[in-house]
Amino acid sequence: MDRQSLIKKFDKQAEKYDKRRKNDPLYRFRQRIFQEAKGNVLEVAIGSGLNFPFYRNDIELTGVDFSREMLRTAEHAAKNYPFQTTFLQKDMETVVFGDDSFDTILSSTSFCAYQEPVDVLNKFQKWCKPEGKILMLEHGFSTNKLLAGMQKMVDPLALRVVGCHLNRDISAMVEKSNVKLIRKERYMAGSLYLIWAEP
Hints:
It is a single chain. The chain is α/β, with parallel strands linked by helices. About 35% of the residues lie in helices and about 25% in strands. The protein has a seven-stranded mixed β-sheet, with helices on both faces. Helix 1 (about 5-20) runs parallel beside helix 3. The longest helix is centred in the C-terminal third of the chain and has 18 residues, at about 145-160.
């Protein structure tokens, strides 16, 4: 799928993501991991800003998304929070930041859409300060064989309809990358990955 088609799919989903703020099925998992974000924070594929409630008041947040409509919802939501925010409409696979720019790099449910997800992780490794953290909440292959089989079967349809791969092995991606895994937890039949890593 070409990038412009993918961006249009996420533009169309912005309103749905914004409504999820009131009843987010991943709320407790976001709360578990993203409260650890501190300092100068980069949130990739920021979407509608669902992680804002878990941030400390004193962070400086840079939010990146390739969807203009997603960024609009995030910008509106950010008005309710005291931390400083900067929003950039950029594609994570081509955006450039300097080495050692961020104390925390955070991603939630974005690795389903990248064409080269390991390359994105390697960018995280460069952009994160040596003493920093990389925090991820991602969905992917289930540990349940039946569910994993279904994910593999419907993956082409999911990609075509919502621009999302369902059958990615997030653990394998991390292992192939240059980031160092610190801790991993899996929930929801193993299809939800919480990952703590460092550069």
